[in-house]
Design brief:
- It is built from nine helices and six strands, in the order βαβααααβαβαβαβα.
- With 266 residues, the protein is an alpha/beta fold.
- The N and C termini lie close together (12 Å).
Length: 266
């Protein structure tokens, strides 16, 4: 089985179809023979959220400053520039793979992100580890904000997390002991194009995130693991955005992941 997890400000719907109505990864992975599960992170969409703190603020039982931050992906920077459709709003990169005429549909997929209301450690780690157990083993695929979830879930349940696929992740810093544990599970990291795009307001750039992932792959392999990193332009696939599951060549990108799973997951 394959489990698809969405990133910040989105829900599992981003895997169902593309903004312009083409086949999404959910359907495509199923057609390629994989039992496929699309989840919504704790506190979003079908998983709902705990509204107690908000009700308590409204009732005057909790001071307003205790209310968690609610955020939503903005159309100007987050979904155009930060997602690397173009370097400035309304001007796509000449080779962009995103279906620009349908960009408003991407905006409609954006939902309120209540991650700040979750307790630490992130409950998604344990939830995905338990799902892998229920499925009798699974390949976990995480995107962006959830990109490192497969790693964290693997540390919780290394027997049932059979493979880890990180799509444009920002990896945590792990100890040598944790790296040794992760080295027992095949790892794939995928990054798209135009990493020079601005990440205004974020603590790291796309290039820094890419380099951090490359360093993780190196550490895992030096520990005897099976880790691989695919930079799509190096495969001749130019213009892919942060949302390559929705790009015009989304199925070609999926084929790379499917091929890796078939070759590396027993």
């Amino acid at each position: 089985p394959v489990v698809l997890t969405h990133g910040a400000g989105l829900s599992g719907a981003c895997y169902d179809t593309t903004p312009d109505g083409r086949t999404g990864w959910f359907d495509y992975f199923v057609r390629n023979g994989f039992p496929t599960y699309v989840v919504d992170q704790v506190g979003r969409a079908r998983s709902r959220f705990d509204q107690t703190v908000f009700n308590n603020v409204g009732a005057g039982r909790t001071p307003p400053e205790k209310q968690p931050k609610i955020s939503r992906m903005g159309d100007l920077h987050a979904s155009w520039i930060n997602f690397r459709i173009g370097a400035e709003k309304g001007v796509p990169y000449p080779d962009t793979q995103f279906p620009v005429d349908a960009v408003s549909e991407l905006s409609k997929m954006s939902i309120a992100d209540l991650s700040a209301s979750l307790n630490a450690p992130d409950p998604n780690y344990k939830a995905l580890a338990e799902l892998a157990d229920e499925l009798g083993g699974a390949v976990l695929i995480g995107h962006s904000q959830s990109g490192h979830y497969p790693l964290e879930s693997a540390l919780i349940n290394p027997e049932k997390v059979k493979g880890m696929v990180l799509l444009e992740a920002v990896p945590p810093v792990y100890s040598d002991e944790q790296i040794a544990a992760l080295a027992k599970i095949p790892l794939l990291i995928v990054y798209g194009d135009h990493l020079e795009s601005s990440t205004e307001g974020a603590p790291t750039t796309w290039r820094q995130r890419f380099d951090e992932c490359a360093a993780l792959v190196d550490r895992v392999n030096k520990a005897g693991g099976n880790a691989q990193m695919i930079h799509l332009p190096a495969k001749g696939m130019r213009g892919n955005t942060h949302m390559f599951m929705q790009d015009k060549n989304n199925l070609a990108v999926a084929d790379l992941i499917i091929g890796w799973i078939k070759e590396n997951i027993k």
